[in-house]
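Sequence in, structure out.
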Amino acid sequence: MPMLEQNAKAILTDSGGMQKEAYFFGVPCVTMRTETEWVETVEMGWNVVVGEDRGKIVEAVRCLKSDNPRPELYGNGKAAEKIIQHLTAYLLT
């Protein structure tokens, strides 16, 4: 599934996990629920919460942008590398 998400132009979902994955991959997301646990993704312009209203879903897809800033809200996926570097430095001293 990650390969499909990574190469998508947009993701329409009701899944909380997929909303966050869309953000990681830099893919705009339309969330077909009335709320989200990932409000940061909405605030950054990468996720639009539209509920189940067909008109809102269609309009959100039409207005999607992928040029919004995308700060590393959840890290950069390299935590293990940093931990290894710190442990190695600690053990070698």
